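Quick one, probably user error.
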């Protein structure tokens, strides 16, 4: 469901993200053995604090695990126990979460948090390969790291880019995500590895940027007119973005715009946000 990446150097490698459960992460690590037998994983970067990018950490606990400060805060709040509780909740949100996450197995996952936390930027030399970590969050989550490998003209975006699917603005602000897209567009990179979806190019970054601008504008207009958030989510026509997978994420995105415009609005917890998406899903 989510992407990870391996950056190799002389005698060592850096892994970008682990996967959502132990079985998936083990399969990936086994598949990488031809590379990692001569260049073992010495550093792991978790791009952010959503489980599909770090729940496999215990299988690479021997390495130095690095993440942005905000990402670690998210990991502390929502670990495997919380995700399991969400998927068994007897509610519309719980059933919707089960539909999405039911194929993953949280059994045996011990939350292994990063050993090293950074703010802003961090530069690493992985056996002669230069790697630049930039925290462009808070945007999708409280901390969103992009991993740039200049000599490969490649960037791993974490969930700042979903290729072929709608982005989901769990945290925001939107402005910060738009700025993150501009950082990506400014890099000397031809290969963009998104958090989800096929390996792509900067065109996918432009698509995400356009979607965010459009949704922000549409939601703001309805907020100003006094329309409640869920009504606005039902009312907005996505136009050229309607074919994106998981378009029901619009419900969360509208909620995030509303909360930014009126901070006195009560925040919704995970189950409530999944409930909002479930409500929007039959329509799309
Ligand atoms: Zn993800």
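Nope, works fine. Designed sequence:
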């Amino acid at each position: 469901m989510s992407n990870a990446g391996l950056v190799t150097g002389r005698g060592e490698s850096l892994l970008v993200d682990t996967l959502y459960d132990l079985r998936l992460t083990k399969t990936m690590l086994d598949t990488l053995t031809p590379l990692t037998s001569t260049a073992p994983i010495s550093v792991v970067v978790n791009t952010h604090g959503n489980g599909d990018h770090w729940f496999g950490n215990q299988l690479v606990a021997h390495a130095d695990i690095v993440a942005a400060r905000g990402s670690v805060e998210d990991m502390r709040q929502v670990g495997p126990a919380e995700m399991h509780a969400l998927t068994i909740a007897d509610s519309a949100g719980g059933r919707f979460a089960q539909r999405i996450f039911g194929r993953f197995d949280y059994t045996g996952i011990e939350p292994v948090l990063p050993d090293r936390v950074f703010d802003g930027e961090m530069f690493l030399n992985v056996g002669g390969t230069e790697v630049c970590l930039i925290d462009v969050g808070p945007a999708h989550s409280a901390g969103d790291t992009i991993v740039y490998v200049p000599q490969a003209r490649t960037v791993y975006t974490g969930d700042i880019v979903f290729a072929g699917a709608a982005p989901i603005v769990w945290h925001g602000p939107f402005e910060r995500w738009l700025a993150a897209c501009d950082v990506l567009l400014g890099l000397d990179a031809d290969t963009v590895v998104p958090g989800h979806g096929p390996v792509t190019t900067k065109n996918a970054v432009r698509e995400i940027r356009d979607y965010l601008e459009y949704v922000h504008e549409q939601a703001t207009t309805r907020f100003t007119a006094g329309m409640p958030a869920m009504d606005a989510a039902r009312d907005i026509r996505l136009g050229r973005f309607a074919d994106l997978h998981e378009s029901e994420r619009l419900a969360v995105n509208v909620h995030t715009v509303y909360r930014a415009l009126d901070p006195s609005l009560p925040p919704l917890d995970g189950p409530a946000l999944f409930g909002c998406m479930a409500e929007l899903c039959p329509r799309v």
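The chain has nine helices and ten strands.
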